[in-house]
Amino acid sequence: MRGSCKCQCNAPAGVKLRERGLSSFDTLSRAGGLFVEGYYVRVSELLSRIPRILEASRRYIVLTTGLFLMGIAAGASVFYYNPLDASQLLLLLDRKFGPMTRSMARLSIPDMARLVFWNNIKATGLLIAGGAAFGILPMIMVFINGLVVGMVSGDVIRQGFGLFPFILVGILPHGVFEIPAYILGGTLGIRLGFNILGYERGRQHGQGLRIIVIDTLVVLIIVLIPLLAIASLVEVSVTRQLVEWVMGDALRWH
Question: Could you tell me the CA-to-CA distances from 141 to 63, 177, 247 in Å, in that order?
Answer without folding.
Answer: 13, 18, 28
